[in-house]
Specification:
Low-confidence stretches: none
Number of strands: 12
Largest sheet: 5 strands, mixed, barrel
Radius of gyration: 17 Å
Distance between the termini: 38 Å
Strand order of the largest sheet: 1-2-3-5-4
Number of helices: 3
């Protein structure tokens, strides 16, 4: 049995998703970068288990790894048009680490909003898109550069019986301010391990993703804060 095809990509997200991870990146060509790729499993929400995403030596992909992934077929799902179903009978392969020049070249340019700015959740700002509108979109991933990233840590929803702390990122892009949930597990662990408050990080490169639709909305998530 042979592999149908491979996708070689720079890992720009390895984020928390249900009981697994959501990994995404941009395809690496011979002399240029290609489009976005989101490897998914056959599970209902496509999340990747530890075994799904493992290298032969047992390690997990890290941000900016260049990874070769065996695939079965393209499986676009609603607005997540970048999805490809992995062939889970094979290990993934780390090829190398991306260069700073490749990361800079991968940043998505544009003067408009992150998808649209028509809706905000109770605790967020411009952090969601109506599912019906999201399903008309041509992409669900963006790599952006910002100059004013702040990390906010604190309890949200205590009045609704939810006493858990939350990590969010605030930044400005093209004149609009955003406050989005952070699903980068490394950043989450770092800030949940400290005090509540607001922390200025300044310039940063972020991978922003539209997550699975929930209660009629697709939420904008900071899937990675790149090193």
């Amino acid at each position: 049995m042979t592999i149908a095809y491979r996708k070689t990509m720079i890992c720009f997200a390895n984020s928390r998703k249900i009981s697994g991870r959501c990994i995404a990146g941009k395809e690496v060509g011979t002399n240029c970068l290609g489009g976005w790729v989101r490897p998914v499993s056959e599970r209902e929400n496509g999340e990747l288990s530890e075994a799904d995403r493992r290298f032969k030596d047992g390690t997990d992909p890290k941000l900016l790894d260049v990874i070769s992934i065996p695939m079965k077929e393209a499986t676009p799902h609603g607005f997540q048009v970048e999805n490809h179903l992995i062939d889970n009978k094979y290990y993934w392969q780390k090829v190398r680490t991306a260069t700073p020049q490749e990361v800079a070249a991968a940043i998505d340019q544009g003067n408009g909003p992150l998808w649209d700015n028509l809706s905000s959740s109770y605790n967020g700002q411009h952090d969601r898109v109506l599912e019906a509108a999201a399903n008309q979109l041509a992409y669900s991933l963006r790599l952006i550069a910002v100059n004013d990233l702040q990390i906010h840590v604190g309890m949200e929803g205590a009045e609704f019986g939810n006493g858990k702390r939350k990590v969010r990122g605030r930044f400005t892009l093209n004149g609009t301010q955003y406050l989005l949930s952070v699903t980068d597990p490394v950043v989450e662990r770092q800030y949940l391990g400290g005090q509540d408050g607001t922390f200025d990080l300044g310039a940063a490169t972020l991978c922003v993703s539209l997550g699975e639709a929930w209660q009629g909305y697709a939420y904008k998530l900071i899937a990675a804060v790149l090193p």
